[in-house]
Q: What sequence folds into this?
DNA sequence: CCCCGACAAAATGTGCACATTCTCTGGATT
DNA sequence: AATCCAGAGAATGTGCACATTTTGTCGGGG
């Protein structure tokens, strides 16, 4: 009975994390078309792991609201409504208003120096025309603000919102324009330096409304629907079989 | 070889939800001492289900930050530091400041009427001396505020914070005092009615700081550590075996 | 007397096989 | 001709057995 072969001892403790990050990234940067089905068996083949492991990762992603899981019907890449996306931006805006008010008592030269340094980075990226870096740094600016408050809970909540809003940027945001105008970030910092909270809050709200209004009404063309292609850098070549002409 | 008995076909679709709710409640209302180990096998016995089902529920609770899961070491009832609890209250306070500002444009007679009705309920509970209802209604007041904004994301975030802060109330909150002074809630509503946002925000902040300062430094006596006893209403009697004199 | 290493027991993690549910296709009936 | 039902195929859900890791204990050495 125990004709059991030794079985590959690849119980990497960080494999789960890698798969989780890979799927989260693919969903967030738009490599996978909204509505694409994430079949457990396909993903298990692509990543070369057992189905149970994929299953666990998928459920975790579902709990994080990064993908959508329907009982007995599997996981799908979510297809958020424009209204839902605006709701996330609005939540971010409301939260940041509170953050700015809470930040005032903790605002010192060190924090302002860090913000100035970050603004310099943002301007450099904008001048280089590096859109990818601009998007990343633009988000990091808001994280810098909330981190300065020194409350881990707040940082975690805002980080979550930010990661989910960045999902849709690639779909709903017109590529021709830069995401966050650096000047708007700079204006917020100046208001903070002058300890004018009301103005900082107003600038922040205006900033977010600016971003919200720029969102396109209809989603852009679907990027890709082939799972294997989306995860190519992570998939061993041999596991990418000829896909069925479904 | 297939001497497999039919096996109880109890694949209730709502069993998971019931177990999840039971454990969440037990953790949140303090039936289980902070630090208590939640062994999968014990819980499986108590609830009369397979270990895998408990496992899934436990991991979900961990993702929701209601319990603490350490890889290869199992799940425990979290033992938050006073600092962590204050951080949650602070996050709630910062968030509510933003909520109050966002609420102003949406504030109409209907919302004010709902708030007034709620205040009446709170006062009634306080006069009855019904502490349990007071705690519940006090939390519901803040939910009412955020729900009035009409943003599902904000409501979800605040609901999560509230459920986690209510965990610790039973541990760190002195039982002799009422949780939220109804008058403080009433004052916030009055400030809103006068459309004086600055005052409403200040009152709200003062209110939360009031609650934070009342927290006891040292946790109270541990209520219970016996899993079977904590889940008694959910556990079939026969599964409650004589506990090992560990 | 204290500390360290190894062994044993128990708890968690994982893969596999089976059960259940859903989807899709093909055909018969109204 | 359109609709509905039935059956096959495929995908998800679940329990079980085994592997791995951790923890508590005992014995020997410093």
A:
């Amino acid at each position: 009975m125990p004709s059991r072969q030794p079985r590959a001892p690849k119980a990497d403790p960080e494999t789960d994390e890698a798969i989780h990050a890979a799927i989260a990234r693919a969903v967030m940067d738009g490599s996978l078309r909204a509505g694409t089905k994430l079949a457990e068996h396909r993903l298990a083949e692509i990543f070369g792991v057992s189905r149970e492991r994929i299953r666990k990762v998928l459920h975790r992603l579902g709990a994080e609201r990064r993908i959508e899981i329907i009982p007995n019907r599997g996981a799908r890449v979510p297809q958020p409504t424009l209204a839902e996306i605006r709701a996330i931006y609005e939540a971010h805006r409301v939260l940041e208003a509170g953050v700015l008010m809470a930040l005032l008592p903790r605002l010192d030269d060190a924090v302002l120096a860090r913000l100035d340094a970050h603004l310099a980075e943002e301007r450099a990226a904008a001048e280089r025309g590096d859109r990818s870096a601009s998007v990343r740094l633009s988000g990091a600016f808001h994280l810098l603000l909330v981190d300065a408050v020194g409350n881990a809970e707040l940082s975690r909540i805002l980080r979550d919102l930010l990661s989910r809003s960045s999902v849709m940027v690639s779909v709903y945001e017109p590529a021709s324009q830069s995401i966050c105008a650096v000047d708007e970030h700079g204006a917020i910092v100046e208001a903070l330096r002058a300890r004018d909270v009301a103005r900082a809050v107003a600038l922040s709200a205006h900033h977010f409304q600016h971003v919200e209004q720029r969102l396109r009404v209809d989603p852009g063309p679907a990027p890709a629907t082939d799972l294997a292609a989306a995860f190519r850098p992570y998939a061993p070549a041999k596991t990418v079989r000829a896909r069925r002409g479904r």
About this structure: Residues 82-103 of chain B form the longest helix (22 residues). Residues 1-10, 237-246 of chain B have pLDDT under 50 and may be disordered. Chain B touches chain A at residues 13, 56, 59-60, 63-64, 71, 87-88, 90-91, 93-99, 101-102, 149, 151-154, 157, 161, 201 (CB under 8 Å). The domain at 82-214 of chain B is CATH 1.20.120.530 (Four Helix Bundle (Hemerythrin (Met), subunit A)).
